[in-house]
Design a protein that fits this description.
The longest helix has 22 residues. It is built from 13 helices and 18 strands. The radius of gyration is 21 Å and the shape is globular. Helices cover 37% and strands 20% of the residues. The strands form four sheets. The protein has an eight-stranded parallel β-barrel with strand order 4-5-7-8-9-10-11-12, surrounded by four helices. Strands 1-2-3 form a three-stranded antiparallel sheet. A three-stranded mixed sheet has the order 6-17-18, with no helix packed on it. Helix 2 runs antiparallel to helix 3. Strand 9, helix 9 and strand 10 form a beta-alpha-beta unit. It has 392 residues and is an alpha/beta fold. The relative contact order is 0.16. It has two domains: 102 residues, Enolase-like, N-terminal domain (Enolase-like, domain 1, 2-Layer Sandwich), CATH 3.30.390; 253 residues, TIM Barrel, CATH 3.20.20. The structure holds D-gluconic acid and magnesium ion (MG). D-gluconic acid binds next to loops.
Length: 392
């Protein structure tokens, strides 16, 4: 079964998505997500100019060897562009293999370890009444775990709040640190002790500030505190860990197992945030999560809207088959996106399931995709109140 055709499809139904479609000489095809938010066309060029020519004529069954060829064979290792491109090839080959076997992909990864995947949804508000409404709305949709983001008095809307869609945000860590514990206190007294609550700091604090926040939030029993410091400084987590038992989640911007080496071995985190899409595909993320499992660290895969339905489906198949699954972030896509990508995964009573169709269970309607050309878009940036560029 040889790879006969490789198409890179760029479409922007509700936002930009990059999808690799591989087709074999016996007519089977597979999909892989290669979407890198705000830098989409760099991955498109990497795939079209450098990767696709290497794939034509290769045995579609040799997933591991192809992974090694694209990783080691390039000499220049790691990095988000390279690893998103490798992820797309890897995912598409797993999709093909599972379709050839006539099985949903999770069967090839070892079979189901659970009935469904606990998902968390996003709630946010500028103030408490707005936040409470948003939590109630997520709960009505079935979510059993909720990420809570809040506006900060004195600042314009900040990351994670619905009205924050702007090119430049404004940030002040002191105001945030003062305000956030009172938000969780109010949410706990309104919604009780049982509901799992999460929060994303989005890389904005120094290690000592993060330590203080983790400690201040302990009474509210968070499921996790995410990206409390910029993730590339792995050592910073030691200081945070010394001061707090609030569980920590890190890694949505990581792309290889090497990024996790120290924080996993030293048990500085509790959840691995990597997505299949950004971390070299199913093959490599599985490797990271097997390493993490030795330390009772679990998965908490990134599932923003900029991971396409193909990337989401890949996450669900892997999550169902992993023993150390923790939780899955789930941000439903818009109606136009769901028309372009027909999906078979389900969300019932707060649990996701990848479905029972062969392969990933997602098909791409290329004609529908063609209606929505690429639209250049950037992520926002974040500035301190004096104008200094800060982490977004
Ligand atoms: C999350 C993330 C996202 C990212 C986005 C960047 O936890 O869901 O932090 O909101 O900011 O995916 O492309
Ligand atoms: Mg995040």
């Amino acid at each position: 079964m040889l790879i006969d055709r490789a198409e890179v499809v760029v479409t922007s139904p509700d936002r930009n998505f990059v999808t690799l479609k591989l087709t074999t000489d016996d007519g089977l095809s597979g999909l892989g997500d290669a979407t890198l938010n705000g830098r989409e066309m760099a991955v498109v060029a990497y795939l079209r100019d450098h990767v696709v020519p290497m794939l034509i004529g290769r045995d579609a069954h040799r997933i591991e060897d192809t992974w090694q060829l694209l990783y080691r064979g390039a000499y220049w290792r790691r990095g988000p562009v390279t690893m998103a491109a490798i992820a797309a090839v890897d995912t598409a080959l797993w999709d093909i293999k599972a379709r050839a076997a006539g099985m949903p992909l999770y069967q090839l990864l070892g079979g189901a370890c659970r009935d469904g995947l606990l998902a968390y949804g996003h709630a946010s508000g500028q103030d408490l009444p707005e936040l409470f409404d948003s939590i109630r709305e997520r709960r009505a949709l079935g979510f059993r775990a909720i990420r809570v983001q809040s506006g900060v008095p004195g600042l314009p809307p900040v990351y994670g709040t619905a009205s924050a869609a702007r090119d430049v945000e404004v940030w002040d860590s002191r105001s945030y640190l003062r305000h956030l514990p009172s938000v969780f206190e109010a949410v706990r007294s309104e919604f009780g002790p049982q509901l799992p609550l999460l929060h994303d700091v989005h890389h904005r604090l120094t290690p000592i500030q993060a330590a203080r926040l983790g400690k201040a939030l302990e009474p509210y029993d968070l499921f996790w505190l995410e990206d409390c410091t910029p993730a590339e400084n792995q050592e910073a987590l030691r200081l945070v860990r010394q001061h707090t038992t609030t569980p920590l989640a890190i890694g949505e911007v990581f792309n290889t197992v090497w990024d996790y080496q120290q924080i996993v071995r030293e048990q500085l985190i509790d959840y691995v945030r990597s997505a299949v899409t950004h971390t070299g595909g199913i093959t490599h993320l599985r490797r990271i999560l097997d390493f993490a499992a030795q330390y009772q660290i679990r998965s908490g895969m990134h599932g923003p809207q900029d991971v396409s339905p193909v990337g989401m489906a890949a996450a669900l198949h892997l999550g169902l088959a992993l023993h150390n699954f923790g939780i899955q972030e789930y941000n439903p896509h818009g109606a136009r996106t769901d028309e372009v990508f027909r999906q078979s995964f389900t969300f019932t009573d707060g649990l996701l399931h990848p479905g029972s169709e062969p392969g990933l269970g997602v098909s791409l309607d290329v004609d529908e995709a063609g209606k929505y050309p690429y639209a250049r878009a950037y992520l926002p940036v974040n500035r301190l109140t004096d104008g200094t560029l800060h982490d977004w």
